[in-house]
Amino acid sequence: MSNLIRGISENGGVVFCGVDSTEIVRTAEKLHTTSATCSAALGRLLTGVSLMGAMLKDDGDSITLRVSGGGPAGVVIACTDAHGDVKGCIDHPLVELPAKENGHLDVGGAVGKDGVLTVIRDNKLQKEPTVGQVPLVSGEIAEDITSYYAYSEQIPTVCALGVLVDKDLSIACAGGYLLQLLPGATDAEITRLEQNIAAMPSVTEMLRAGKTPQDMMELAMAGFDPQVLDTREVKYQCDCSEERTKDMLLSLGRKELVKLRDEDPKCEVVCHFCHTKYEFDLNELLAETTPEEK
């Protein structure tokens, strides 16, 4: 069963992307052994970047979101390919804060809001990635992504994200949606969308009630006769490999490898995103370089 859907209004003026990211966030929680608040922070960012990735046009493109808000959880990173498959990490996964007055997890407190959201877009047709940056609005992630689209791309956007963590720290459900207005939307259409979204329950309430991403689309775009563009399965997937890790070490250059070898000829590299360990003999790697390399 597909867990991500993309749709468009009948007149082509509104686009929608929604995802049930429960399994993605469960995988992230297991890999990073996150606290409840950090599960919500990383889970929201992974959900948001998956939605953004699914809306990319070219298969070779990718997006990285980096949230640096000065909070105790540190920097939170999430990456996606153009399919919507994701990976992510958080500096301090065990940080926990008291719940807010409304009982919700204090994601903004853990992430902080004295900083920036950086969006790095890698386009296979461009030599250098495109980097956009906006000040954090709240550190709650969804509002910050909405702000990025408004200020960096001038696209009116609604982003809603949610992660519900059970008392045993397991992930009960997670998901979200992105809704964007294309140029030419009328005031009446904007008003109708605002009314639709204001009437919707939270993402986690909808998922808990058994709603699907398509149900979310039909609620958000009621009156716009939404058409399904496509559906797909998206997942947490790290693209690290022994070969890529070896290439990374070789890229340090012979001089740096000699320094590392002199400290310890056995080198272990651990992936930040999936914690896979790769072991190398630096003497063997040095044998593949030439003495003239710097």
For this entry, give a set of tags.
294 residues; alpha+beta; five-stranded antiparallel sheet
Topology:
Layout: E1 4-8, E2 14-20, H1 22-32, H2 36-54, E3 62-68, E4 76-81, E5 86-90, H3 107-111, E6 116-122, E7 130-135, H4 142-152, E8 157-165, E9 171-181, H5 187-199, H6 203-208, H7 213-220, E10 227-232, H8 242-250, H9 254-263, E11 266-270, E12 277-281, H10 282-286
Helix count, per DSSP? 10
Oligomer: single chain
Based on secondary structure, the structural category is alpha+beta
Distance between the termini: 52 Å
Side-by-side strand order of the widest sheet: 8-9-2-1-10
Shape estimate: globular
The proportion of residues forming helix, as a percent range, comes to: 25-40%
- Low-confidence parts, pLDDT < 50 over ≥5 residues? none
Main sheet: strands, sense, barrel = 5 strands, antiparallel
Radius of gyration: 21 Å
Secondary structure: number of strands = 12
What is the mean pLDDT?
Answer: 93
Q: Element order, helices and strands? A: EEHHEEEHEEHEEHHHEHHEEH
Strand content: 25-35%
Protein name: 33 kDa chaperonin
Subcellular location: Cytoplasm
Main location: cytoplasm
Keywords: Chaperone, Cytoplasm, Disulfide bond, Redox-active center, Zinc
